[in-house]
């Protein structure tokens, strides 16, 4: 009996050790090239359409209730005329050492077998702990059961749950698309290959800034991009071990036209 | 193998339509839903999606899309990965098109005006009544011998729908088709024809260029073909096949596109053309230009010396020289001119100046430069470059020369400058027929509404303009049954044409637009060798073309020489900067109204996704604002979010203030698209419309309104503002969120900046 318990304990603990993912079949990873991203926000609308995100209106936007699972943060530096504007798309980073998972009292948010940080809506009781713990401010709470003005609800994606009041939600790396790809691959007796899964944001991105795939596959596009010397991860010093890798933007910062004459 | 993701493209639009009919709003007797699955439609498995290839009509770019259909409903719009322009990608407006289809505020069926004009009081009527009424009006007009008093006001109708409408107008006996869109690139077409002799908009090859010099072309959000150009931009930066290209943007306001540039050159508003010609002069004088007509170029460009240009444009001499040096020595380089140079009183001249610059640098007709597109378009429509414009219609209406107006989709009561008084002029028209699907400001003035389908419910096609160097025709097919009792615009024309009789009837050989489209393509198939060689029979060709989303052949790209001669452009070159209304002593600030990514000319304002999409630069939602430089704001005593009154010699509007470092201190900017008086629950009564306070200045060569043509003054208003911004900080606070590497050493290992 105690043997089983130890085994169980070891297994549970392995979930909390960064790097355990090597044991699993897939390690879903996103690479965002900030030198390609032009801040157009096509990804944001794609996410709204794919994931049934409600529109909350001006007043609720004002009190931070906007539902975007992916947002473009924009930073403005310098003074006229030496102004630099920088963009970065931020979505759930699917951290391998996710602070949110530690906080949830009912295990509504946990790490699944593919290294995804997932949210079980049925378990969530809305304590808001995960959103408080989250380093990246990507969790969104359903303060109400939102309504779509008829017939706008006809657009809702049947592959994704429409959430109700009291539930926390966030970017899922389009898990419904991953499921379809895995099912198809299973039916065909193979592994999911590179390019089988496209997240909605990646699919729409006109500049091809977003790439998604399996880091365990050494030949996948993300594996190659992840080796770029421009790579970094968001607030990496906090040791959350994110699954999203950013590639640095190429720009000369805080350098006016005076010095760019070279 | 990437494309395997799209399980299959289903060609026959009929299947989707058939299923849609069973599920849609139009027919739903109880129990009807059960019957179809006794004999399930082929290719349809409940819960599994089908993808239909079609065409996006949210802007004139003509991107090919795939629409995801499940159980007869449109669920998502994605780019068609096979399509040469969209390449599987799509912009914000394209994706939000679904919320136009399922918009709760659409006109749900034909209606006749009940109350006074503009009162929005309409009563529903049947389609037969509606067509009958229009026919009566048409017959009354032609009986009086006044057929030419029929005007048709429309945006550019691509492909065979445009031809059908032309046939109808010609058959009825009117030559008055007026094409108008607030952003319809007439200046660009005119300038290209005048300087290079080409009718079709050329392909600006951003992807392969190594130095992009953009004069106010906001291609990341709205200009020309945002998806195609953004794809090119991504490749130019990190495609790896040419090395990272440099990008310089010239414009008074740092737009979304300029935010991505390596250098921003905030030239004084209205002087961009002078700057372009000064750069051209530097290039010619340096000996880079080797043409036999060197002398005439030197003479033509002689007034644009560095001292003059620097003084007028407010750009440092050294900087102009530096740009010129980089522009000619980096091969290939490319200059493009967008709204920021064509939106002035001398817009055509500005675009001609950009063409001159490309010519003397040697960028015409080369890879990574400007490539000509074919004019033939498979024998389809060619864009009308210099036809009558909106001002002609407004003048005719004022003089009561318009007896009957057909109006479709471009909402001039909103999208024309306030002082053009388009709405007042339209009130002079005895009878207005609207084909719009939304009750906007112009449709509200109509006497009868015959609402047309959205692009998801209709057949159609478009000869993409600008094409990517070879001809592209994209086909639109109905992917769902109509949500409301709307009809295909083509069917409406055929219905009216047949009812009117005479030549108009003779010009309508087919009973429906669907059969008309197919028959027209059959003729193209017989004519075009590439098409007829692709498959044995027309039926196979048609099926394959529908499944693919259209017809294009990369191999059909022909290299064509392009050049600009001094003789053709001399009359368009002027030393004077653009003119602005309002004395600078009374109105010290230039006003720049600009197209915002989500709303374009205001058409996106009724879409909740786009209203709640933060503006990429200001992060404001559900509103518009006026951008003011911090120095100017301090002088005026206004802070972020304060309400301000913006007054031009033509009127005033109220708007919240957005203090922005990326705008010249002598300039303010307001996005276009908000404060609709009508246009549905999401669009109405929010923000400010800068068009209301514009003069009706046009470039006389093209009748295009100069958006940047007035000065304004600004005063603080004590009313509290209600600007809602989604950003918290504009500064990273040292957190290293967006990390960078310097341009010189992008492949060197670099630590946190």
List keywords for this structure.
A: 262 residues, 4-stranded mixed β-sheet, 8 helices, B: 753 residues, alpha/beta, Phosphorylase Kinase, domain 1, Rossmann fold, Dimethylsulfoxide Reductase, domain 2, 4 domains, 7-stranded mixed β-sheet, 6-stranded mixed barrel, globular, disordered C terminus
Would you kindly provide a written description of the structure presented here, covering whatever features stand out?
The complex is a heterodimer of chains A (262) and B (753). By secondary structure, chain A is α+β, with helices and mostly antiparallel strands. Chain A contains 8 helices and 11 strands. Chain A is 23% helix and 16% strand. In chain A, the strands form 4 sheets. Chain A has a 4-stranded mixed sheet. In chain A, strands 2-3 form a two-stranded antiparallel ribbon. With 753 residues, chain B is α/β, with parallel strands linked by helices. Chain B contains 24 helices and 28 strands. The longest helix of chain B has 17 residues. The chains are: A alpha+beta (262), B alpha/beta (753).
The computed structural class of chain B is alpha/beta
Percent helix of chain A, as a range, is 10-25%
> Reading side by side through the largest sheet of chain B, how are the strands ordered?
5-4-16-15-14-6-7
CATH architectural grouping of the largest domain in chain B:
2-Layer Sandwich
Top CATH class of the largest domain in chain B: Alpha Beta
- What's the arrangement of strands in the largest beta sheet of chain A? 8-1-10-9
Biggest pleated-sheet summary of chain A: 4 strands, mixed
CATH class of chain A: Alpha Beta
Strand content of chain B: 15-25%
- What value does the average pLDDT of chain B take? 90
The CATH topology of chain A is Alpha-Beta Plaits
Outline type of chain A: globular
User: How widely separated are the two ends of chain A?
Assistant: 74 Å
Main beta sheet of chain B, described? 7 strands, mixed
Instruction: Work out the helix count of chain A.
Output: 8
Q: How many helical stretches of chain B?
A: 24
List unreliable stretches of 5+ residues of chain A: 256-262
Alpha-carbon distance between the two ends of chain B: 39 Å
């Amino acid at each position: 009996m105690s043997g089983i318990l130890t085994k169980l304990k070891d297994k549970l603990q392995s979930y909390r050790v960064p790097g355990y993912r090597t044991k699993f079949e897939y390690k879903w990873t996103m690479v965002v090239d900030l030198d390609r991203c032009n801040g157009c926000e096509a990804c944001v609308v794609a996410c709204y359409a794919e994931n049934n995100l409600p529109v909350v209106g001006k007043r609720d936007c004002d009190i931070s209730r906007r539902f975007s699972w992916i947002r473009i943060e924009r930073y403005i530096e310098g003074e006229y005329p030496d102004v630099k504007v920088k963009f970065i798309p931020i979505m759930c980073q699917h951290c391998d050492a996710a602070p949110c998972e530690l906080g949830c009292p009912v295990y509504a948010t946990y790490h699944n077998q593919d290294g995804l940080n997932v949210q079980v809506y049925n378990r969530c009781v809305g304590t808001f702990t995960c959103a408080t713990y989250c380093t990246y401010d990507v969790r969104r709470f359903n303060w109400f059961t939102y309504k779509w003005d008829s017939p706008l609800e006809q657009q809702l994606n049947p592959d994704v749950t429409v959430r109700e009041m009291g539930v926390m939600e966030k970017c899922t790396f389009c898990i419904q698309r991953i499921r379809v790809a895995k099912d198809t691959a299973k039916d065909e007796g193979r592994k999911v290959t590179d390019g089988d899964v496209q997240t909605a944001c990646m699919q729409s991105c006109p500049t091809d800034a977003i790439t998604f795939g399996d880091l365990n596959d050494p030949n996948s596009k993300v594996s190659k991009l992840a080796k770029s010397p421009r790579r970094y991860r968001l607030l990496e010093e906090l040791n959350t071990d994110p699954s999203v890798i950013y590639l640095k933007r190429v720009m000369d910062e805080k350098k006016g036209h005076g010095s760019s004459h070279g | 193998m990437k494309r395997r993701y799209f399980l299959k493209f289903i060609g026959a639009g009929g299947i989707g339509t058939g299923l849609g009919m069973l599920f849609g709003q139009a027919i739903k007797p109880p129990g009807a839903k059960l019957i179809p699955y006794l004999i399930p439609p082929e290719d349809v498995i409940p819960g599994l999606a089908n993808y239909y290839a079609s065409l996006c009509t949210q802007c004139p770019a003509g991107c090919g899309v795939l629409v995801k259909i499940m159980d007869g409903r449109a669920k998502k719009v994605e780019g068609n990965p096979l399509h040469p322009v969209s390449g599987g990608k799509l912009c914000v407006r394209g994706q939000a098109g679904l919320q136009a289809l399922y918009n709760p505020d659409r006109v749900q069926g034909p209606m006749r005006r009940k109350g006074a004009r503009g009162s929005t009081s309409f009563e529903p009527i049947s389609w037969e009544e509606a067509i009958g009424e229009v026919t009566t009006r048409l017959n009354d007009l032609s009986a009086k011998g006044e057929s030419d008093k029929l005007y048709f006001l429309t945006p550019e109708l691509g492909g065979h729908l445009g031809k059908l409408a032309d046939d109808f107008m010609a058959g009825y006996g009117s030559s008055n088709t007026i094409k108008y869109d607030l952003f319809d690139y007439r200046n660009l077409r005119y300038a290209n024809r005048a300087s290079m002799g080409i009718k079709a908009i050329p392909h600006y090859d951003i992807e392969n260029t190594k130095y992009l010099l953009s004069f106010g072309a906001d291609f990341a959000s709205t200009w020309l073909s945002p998806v195609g150009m953004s794809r090119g931009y991504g490749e130019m930066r990190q495609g790896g096949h040419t090395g990272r290209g440099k990008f310089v943007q010239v414009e008074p306001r740092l737009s979304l596109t300029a935010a991505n540039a390596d250098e921003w050159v905030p030239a004084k508003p209205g002087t961009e053309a002078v700057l372009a010609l000064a750069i051209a002069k530097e290039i010619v004088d340096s000996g880079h230009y080797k043409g036999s007509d060197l002398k005439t170029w030197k003479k033509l460009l002689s007034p644009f010396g560095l001292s003059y240009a620097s003084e007028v444009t407010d750009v440092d001499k050294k900087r102009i020289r530096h740009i010129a040096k980089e522009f000619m020595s980096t091969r290939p380089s490319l200059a493009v001119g967008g709204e920021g140079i064509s939106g002035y009183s001398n817009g055509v001249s500005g675009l001609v100046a950009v063409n001159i610059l490309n010519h003397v640098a040697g960028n015409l007709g080369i890879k990574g430069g400007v490539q000509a597109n074919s004019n033939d378009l498979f024998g389809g429509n060619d864009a009308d470059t210099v036809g009558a414009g909106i001002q002609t219609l407004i003048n005719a209406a004022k003089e009561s020369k318009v007896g009957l107006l057909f109006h479709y989709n471009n909402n001039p009561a909103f999208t024309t400058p306030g002082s053009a008084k388009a709405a007042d002029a339209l009130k002079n028209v005895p009878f207005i027929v609207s084909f719009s699907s939304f009750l906007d400001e112009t449709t509200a003035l109509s006497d009868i509404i015959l609402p047309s389908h959205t692009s998801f419910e209709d057949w159609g096609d478009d000869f993409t303009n600008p094409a990517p160097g070879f001809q592209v025709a994209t086909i639109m097919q109905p992917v769902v049954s109509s949500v409301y009792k709307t009809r295909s615009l083509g069917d409406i024309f055929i219905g009216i044409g047949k009812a009117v009789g005479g030549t108009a009837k003779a010009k309508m050989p087919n009973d429906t637009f669907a059969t008309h489209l197919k028959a027209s393509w059959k003729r193209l198939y017989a004519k075009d060798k590439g098409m007829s060689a692709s498959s044995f029979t027309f039926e196979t060709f048609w099926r394959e073309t529908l499944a693919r989303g259209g017809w294009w052949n990369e191999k059909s790209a022909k290299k064509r020489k392009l050049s600009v001669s001094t003789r053709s452009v001399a009359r368009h070159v002027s030393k004077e900067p653009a003119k602005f209304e309002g004395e600078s002593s009374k109105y010290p600030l230039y006003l720049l109204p600009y197209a915002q990514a989500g709303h374009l000319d205001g058409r996106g304002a009724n879409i909740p996704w786009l209203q709640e999409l933060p503006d990429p630069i200001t992060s404001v939602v559900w509103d518009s604002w006026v951008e003011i430089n911090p120095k100017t704001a301090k002088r005026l005593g206004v802070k972020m979010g304060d309400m301000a009154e913006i007054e031009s010699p033509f009127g005033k509007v109220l708007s919240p203030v957005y203090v922005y470092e990326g705008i010249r201190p002598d300039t303010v900017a307001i996005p276009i698209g908000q404060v609709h008086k009508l246009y549905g629950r999401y669009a109405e009564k929010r923000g400010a419309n800068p068009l209301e306070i514009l003069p009706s200045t046009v470039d006389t060569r093209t009748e295009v309104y100069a958006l940047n043509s007035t000065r304004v003054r600004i005063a603080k208003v004590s009313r509290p503002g209600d600007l809602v911004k989604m950003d918290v900080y504009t500064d990273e606070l040292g957190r290293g969120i967006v990390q960078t590497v310097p341009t010189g050493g992008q492949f060197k290992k670099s630590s946190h900046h």
